[in-house]
Amino acid sequence: MKIKARIKALDVLRGITIAAMILVNTPGNWAYVYWPLLHAKWHGFTPTDAIFPFFLFIVGVSIHFALKDFKPKEHTKAFKKISKRVVIIFAIGLFLNLFPKFNFETVRFFGVLQRIAIAYGIGAFLYLFFNKKSLTYIAVGILIGYWGVLYFLIPENPFEPQTNLVGKIDLFLFGSNHLWKGLGFPFDPEGLLSTLPSITTVIIGSLTGKLLSKPITNPHKIKILLIYGIGLIALGYVWSFVFPINKSLWTSSFVCVSAGLAMLTLALFIWIIDVKKQHTWSQPFIHFGTNSLFIFVFSGLYVKTMMYLVKMTNEQGETVNGLKYMYQNIFVPIAGKMNGSLLFAITHIIFFWALVYVLYKNKIFIKI
Questions:
Q1: Structural domain includes residue 222
Q2: How far apart are CA 130 and CA 360, in angstroms?
Q3: Which sign, positive or negative, has the C-alpha torsion 324, 326, 329, 330?
Q4: Which end of the chain has fewer CB atoms at under 10 Å, N or C?
């Protein structure tokens, strides 16, 4: 497999992941969302739960291709490059949490971009200084250690919503004002301690990148991805009987299952794009994939602008935000409440695709 083709398969997976993020983050009304587009309430796994770990897995694969040619004498240069990117991504994530009210007393410190920044940074540094065998030991050590820490330090109900160590540490360090409250109580699904196993998701991605660089045939690479992918899913399933699959805690069983699914999906795209040469369908996702972080940030700014800064008067004379106005007055009349909410999200995917398409055609690639 040529490097160019391999990167294309990776860009397709990245693009699909970003499109899926926009789909699940932009319904017309959160009260009307089909279950596959929602996260599991606590324990469990839905298609939506796979999206974020897929992106971190892709980050890991990308780390390999970005850093594989760095020599030991160039590590200082790589260290500066990685550190700069970590700071920028984390700062953008914090800015998104602050926008548009900029209330520092209640700002959420963590979030998706903040986790990407930390997991990418530590994963990249580990890649620079450790070989494949050592990275494997580190990944296994993190997963087992994380399980042990959560289980033994909080022996009573260690994995429940309001008694787990992850939430207790965030509450102690940051206070309830700076945590997400989407579950009905202060708890951050991208909190400090649970970022540790997410680093393992990145490591698994970087090890997958090493596999893709091997001078072996495409069918052989696909076979290896299938074996490891199925093996990780089976391991995660068995582990879940004592350490439940849980995205909010980013449990070790969740890491195994999601990484295994990412491997299987990547194998599928390599087979379709490289082996079968069927890639015309993938072009819109290439557009998303080549400006992935930019369009994710832009979509977040768009949603918050429409929600907090744009006010409109509906037919009932009520003042509502721009998103609610579009949903009620355009999409509900067309498709009803449930399908209108889905159509609303799909329309926004098309809107954001048009933007990345223009950027792609003009060879504008905004790297964050």
A1: yes
A2: 36
A3: negative
A4: C
Mean pLDDT of the chain: 94
Q: Note whether residue 6 is domain-resident.
A: no
Tens of pLDDT, residue by residue over 115-151, are 999 999 999 999 999 999 999 999 999 999 999 999 9
Question: Angle, to 10 degrees, between the axis of helix 292-304 and the axis of helix 112-129?
Answer: 160
What's the gap between Cα 219 and its chain centre? 28
Q: Indicate the number of domains in the chain.
A: 2
- Give 174's contacts (C-beta < 8 A, 6+ positions apart): 109
**178 and 139 both lie in a single domain:** yes
pTM over 0.90: yes
E-strand spans in the chain?
311-313, 319-321
Domain identity same for 243 and 120? yes
What pLDDT score was predicted for residue 5?
A: 45
Q: Check pLDDT > 50 for residue 1.
A: no
User: What proportions of the chain, in percent to the nearest 5, are helix, strand and coil?
Assistant: 70, 0, 30
Are residues 223 and 250 located together in one domain of the fold? yes
Give tens-digit pLDDT for 286-339. Answer: 999 999 999 999 999 999 999 999 999 887 888 999 999 999 999 999 999 999
23 and 137 co-located in one domain? no
**Distance between CA atoms of 131 and 139, rounded to whole angstroms?**
12
The secondary structure element, H or E, covering residue 303 is helix 292-304
Q: Which residue has the higher pLDDT, 67 or 1?
A: 67
Last residue of a domain, one of 256, 278, 300: 278
240 & 337 share domain:
no
State whether 217 and 318 are in the same domain: no
- In this structure, are 153 and 225 located in the same domain? yes
From the number of C-beta atoms within 10 Å of its C-beta (0-12, 13-18, 19+), residue 340 rates as buried
Q: Is the pLDDT of residue 250 over 60?
A: yes
- Report d(CA 139, CA 189) in Å as an integer: 21
Closest CA to 252 of 126, 113, 150: 150
Neighbours of 327 (CB within 10 A): 21
Structural domain boundaries, residue 352: 12-38+288-368
Sign of CA dihedral 17, 198, 228, 41: negative
- Taking residues 60-82, report their average pLDDT: 88
Residue 7 lies in a domain: no
Which pLDDT score, from 0 to 100, does residue 7 have? 54
